[in-house]
Amino acid sequence: DGGITQSPKYLFRKEGQNVTLSCEQNLNHDAMYWYRQDPGQGLRLIYYSQIVNDFQKGDIAEGYSVSREKKESFPLTVTSAQKNPTAFYLCASRTGFRGYTFGSGTRLTVV
Amino acid sequence: GQQLNQSPQSMFIQEGEDVSMNCTSSSIFNTWLWYKQDPGEGPVLLIALYKAGELTSNGRLTAQFGITRKDSFLNISASIPSDVGIYFCAEGEGSQGNLIFGKGTKLSVKP
């Protein structure tokens, strides 16, 4: 079955560390997105990519980086420059004018 | 930027009760989407609306695209415990080709 896989489900980061969240899709979707979710804040766009080897900053890109070397993969790196990284991170993909398909999320906690 | 105002922010209801929530915007949209997010998971698309005045059902769920194209409603009839979660409205005309989400309505159902 096609879908989006995010890993790991839970991730712990020490102060000053970079961590990378994985997002893989086998839906053959062109566009992929990363959102951050905080309690009561809804979903805020971090980065998005419409095609391979191209990506754009969203509303809260500071402290994050991405790459899109393959159509299926869109990893997100949370850098040490992100001062408040504890959140639930959601990856999504989309084709055409339909809604998103979401992954099951990664919960990142700073320890 | 574009904003969606979703209300209520949270609801506590008894099993069997009907539920109604809504989403409004100052802008006119051509697409309204409703998602449900189970605790610790990614959102899942419930209903998509593409035409002003459109009324669409999905089991016990009914959603309507407002005539003014600035609002949408989601109703759940005869709620059950598995209806618990966060319900998001979204529109598909973000300036970056992305979906814009409301902040969500958190539904709690007491057996």
Features:
heterodimer, A: 111 residues, mainly beta, 7-stranded mixed beta sheet, 4-stranded antiparallel beta sheet, 0% helix, 52% strand, globular, B: 111 residues, 6-stranded mixed beta sheet, 11 strands, 50% strand
Describe the structure.
The complex is a heterodimer of chains A (111) and B (111). Chain A has 111 residues and is an all-beta fold. In chain A, 0% of the residues lie in helices and 52% in strands. In chain A, strands 2, 4, 5, 6, 9, 10 and 11 form a 7-stranded mixed beta sheet that branches. In chain A, strands 1-3-8-7 form a 4-stranded antiparallel beta sheet, with no helix packed on it. In chain A, strand 4 (31-38) and strand 5 (42-51) form a beta hairpin. The mean pLDDT of chain A is 92. By secondary structure, chain B is an all-beta fold. Chain B is 0% helix and 50% strand. Chain B has no helices and 11 strands. In chain B, strands 2, 4, 5, 9, 10 and 11 form a 6-stranded mixed beta sheet that branches. In chain B, strands 1-3-8-7-6 form a 5-stranded antiparallel beta sheet, with no helix packed on it. The model of chain B has no long low-confidence stretch (mean pLDDT 90). The A-B interface holds A 4, 6, 31, 33, 40-43, 45, 48, 50, 56, 58-59, 90, 92, 94, 97-105, 107 and B 1, 9, 31, 33, 35, 40-45, 48, 88, 90, 92, 94, 96-99, 101-104.
